[in-house]
Amino acid sequence: MKRNKIEGQALLSTLWIFILFNMIFRDLHQLGKKGFLEEIMTGVVNGIEITEELMLFGGFLAEIPILMVLLSRILHDKANKWANIIASVITFLVLVSAVPSADMDDIFFMIIEFVAFLAIILIAWKLPSGKKHLHFQ
User: What is the pLDDT of residue 48?
Assistant: First the structure.
């Protein structure tokens, strides 16, 4: 069976899309949790008041993986390496900060996302310093 070669930048971008789908589905999955919609309507979720500033901060944090889908494809290798590593660490730390209130499905999604972040870091670390592109089989 012949394997397709996948350019490192394309693989990084695809992994960020994979992470985004997991993050979105995890959030949508919470809506089915008994009492969650009612809790949201009060403006306090897990004991935290949802303010405009908190929503703006959350928007900035959510923008990191969205931006990395694009940047993974257009940045030069050296910048791509560090942008992917730094964005992975920041995004993972933000996701882990929700662990105290995490239930079993949150932990499941977090494990999947952790593996994807680890893959991003390893692939980014292997990006060449020159203009050659890294291919994976």
Answer: 84
